[in-house]
Task: inverse folding
């Protein structure tokens, strides 16, 4: 993912980084927080013009990617965004599009508007008081004469207060289904939720007898579970890639500080104890980058191993990242714990990524279960 050899990918990465550095530097992130805003819709439309929203969308549906592997290119972009803890709906829009392109019938106009940045969509999958379980929704969909009625509550919906479209998981006649619901539909109410991150905002969304047409259903009952799994994999790859970008930026920042800061006439980087600590973090970082690259490649190729590899990446990257970032805070000394220093911006985003879409502990258990299942299958064969 980060070892970019493809010239098109190199140009894409450099263009994205230049755009991020100019449009949303860390000072802009702080200003958005001070203004109580999450992101500028006009900025997102300009980002969409660079092709950011269409990376997982095939060319015949108006998308495309520099290398032809949209997931790896999207991971590369997420890593660049992590270096500046950029705002914007890159994650929710990409996850929704990953689902829509699996069942694109009658969705061409919607996909086109999302790719163009004209609309913002988000995946409404979490529910209050319930853990990450996308295939076990509590929200209900009841068939009516003209379509369906949705009842229930979703929360932790990223950019939910800014989204114009919601992709909602629900249980209908005992089966999990997904519905594409416009944000202004009667009976739907949105309550903004703040998060640990300065600019990533979420929302609690209530569905009180929300009526939708039969055409709101995305995909068939038989394919919905596979579509949700695809969305889950893309969401986890994005999380891990962004966290790798965060680690890269903070380790670079910390290394420079250790070289610049002197104690007793010597740079801090010359002390053996600090060398060892930084060497450990560098080793953990390279492992995080490698596991993320492996997961992105597997998801892009639709490998049977993708389910396990995304959990491997989430378990390792999001478990180690907060520990590493806290260590970097300590290596900066007193300035590391101040509001004025940028370290906490990165730590906040990494801590949020750790919590969303399953904790590292949950993914450790998932990896064990998948490995055990594979062992039993091989023993039976």
Result:
């Amino acid at each position: 993912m980060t070892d970019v050899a493809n010239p098109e990918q190199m140009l894409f990465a450099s263009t994205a980084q230049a755009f991020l550095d100019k449009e949303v530097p860390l000072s802009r992130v702080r200003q958005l927080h001070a203004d109580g805003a999450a992101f500028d819709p006009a900025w997102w439309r300009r980002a969409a013009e660079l092709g950011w929203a269409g990376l997982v969308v095939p060319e015949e549906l108006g998308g495309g990617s520099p290398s032809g592997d949209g997931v790896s290119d999207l991971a590369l972009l997420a890593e660049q965004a992590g270096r500046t803890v950029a705002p914007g709906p890159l994650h929710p829009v990409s996850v929704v599009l990953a689902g829509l392109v699996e069942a694109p019938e009658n969705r061409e106009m919607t996909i086109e508007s999302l790719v163009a940045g004209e609309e913002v969509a988000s995946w409404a999958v979490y529910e209050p008081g319930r853990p990450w379980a996308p295939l076990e929704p509590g929200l209900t969909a009841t068939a009516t004469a003209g379509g369906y009625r949705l009842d229930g509550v979703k929360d932790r919906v990223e950019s939910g207060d800014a989204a114009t479209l919601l992709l909602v998981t629900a249980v209908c006649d005992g089966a999990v289904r997904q519905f594409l619901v416009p944000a202004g539909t009667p009976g739907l109410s949105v309550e903004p939720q703040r998060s640990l991150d300065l600019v990533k905002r979420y929302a609690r969304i209530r569905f009180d007898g929300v009526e939708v047409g039969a055409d709101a259903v995305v995909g068939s009952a038989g394919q919905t579970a596979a579509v949700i799994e695809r969305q889950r994999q893309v969401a986890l790859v994005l999380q891990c890639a962004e966290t790798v970008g965060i680690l890269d930026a903070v380790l670079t920042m910390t290394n420079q500080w250790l070289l610049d800061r002197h104690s007793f006439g010597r740079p801090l980087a010359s002390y053996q104890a600090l060398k060892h600590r930084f060497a450990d973090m560098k080793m953990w970082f390279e492992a995080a980058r490698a596991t993320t690259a492996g997961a992105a490649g597997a998801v892009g190729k639709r490998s049977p191993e993708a389910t396990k590899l995304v959990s491997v990446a989430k378990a390792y990257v999001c478990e180690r990242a907060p520990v590493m970032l806290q260590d970097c805070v300590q290596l900066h000394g007193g300035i590391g714990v101040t509001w004025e220093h940028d370290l906490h911006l990165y730590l906040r985003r990494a801590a949020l990524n750790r919590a969303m879409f399953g904790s590292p502990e949950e993914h450790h258990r998932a990896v064990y279960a998948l490995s055990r299942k594979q062992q039993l299958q091989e023993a039976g064969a």
The longest strand covers residues 147-158. The radius of gyration is 21 Å. The beta strands are 121-124, 140-143, 147-158, 165-172, 175-182, 188-193, 202-213, 262-263, 266-267.
